[in-house]
Amino acid sequence: MKQITKLFQYGTLGALMTGLYDGTMTIGELLEHGDIGIGTLDQIDGELIVLDGKAYQAKSTDGRLEVLEVSSEMKVPYAAVVPHRASHSFTQNQVISDNDLQAKIETYFEGKNLFKSFKMHGNFQKMHVRMIPTAKTGESFVTVAANQPEHTAENVSGTIVGIWTPDLFHGIGVAGYHLHFLSDDHSFGGHIMDYVMTNGRIEIGDIDQLDQRFPVSDEKYLKSDFNLDQMRSDITAAE
């Protein structure tokens, strides 16, 4: 009997767009549901990277990027994790851009209406990332994102983790690829803008179910009025 793989998501990207940044689930609780994933932390303080069952925070302060291991007590307003199981894998032996690699990955898709997970370890000629800066609940995400720090590393080794979200679920997550990076030495990471892979191994995981959880005790979430059209356009602009 096929083992069911369930994507666990807490909160929605759409809720972040409206300025709901309060962390309401602990990292400890989150890690009970998956060993790779992406997200952000309380008050959108940098990028959350979950790799091999551990949580890391990539942030930039005064132009200095740092990666910290996250304690189990820290909280998230939004995150998505999955017990990653490779359904398809291949080795990439030639230099390839992110767009060309993603086109190659999609040849393994049965279609584009199912979630997928990714774990890609390799060497990168270039890795360009950004990290959302800390903001207070209520501030416009798009405005905050317009001032996000960006960093680029050359000739770096590390792992990409992430999720493919179908267009059908845009708003719950960002449609298409949502990928974060962590270097092998844990000194560099963040939300991926673009990259060039020198070589590496790519794993694609099938996802059978979505377990969507909501911050049911967060009064701000419960009483918010969401402008869905604005929310979708803000996601596109920010991501």
Polypeptide structure, described:
The chain is an alpha+beta fold and 239 residues long. It has one domain: 60s Ribosomal Protein L30, Chain: A. The chain is built from 6 helices and 15 strands. The strands form 3 sheets. The protein has a 7-stranded mixed β-sheet with strand order 6-5-4-3-8-1-15, with no helix packed on it. A hairpin with a 6-residue loop joins strand 3 and strand 4 (47-51). It is globular, with a radius of gyration of 17 Å. The model has no long low-confidence stretch (mean pLDDT 91).
Report a brief summary of the structure.
The protein is an alpha+beta fold. It is built from 6 helices and 15 strands.
Radius of gyration, in Å, reads: 17 Å
Mean pLDDT: 91
**How many H/I helices?**
6
List the strand order in the largest sheet.
6-5-4-3-8-1-15
- CATH-assigned fold name: 60s Ribosomal Protein L30, Chain: A
How does the helix and strand content classify structurally?
alpha+beta
The shape is globular
- The CATH fourth-level homologous superfamily: Hypothetical protein, similar to alpha- acetolactate decarboxylase, domain 2
Tell me the name of the CATH class: Alpha Beta
Q: Residue ranges: pLDDT <50 for 5 or more in a row? A: none
* Largest beta-sheet characterization: 7 strands, mixed
| Strand segment count | 15
Q: What is the straight-line distance between the termini? A: 38 Å
Q: Share of helix among residues?
A: 10-25%
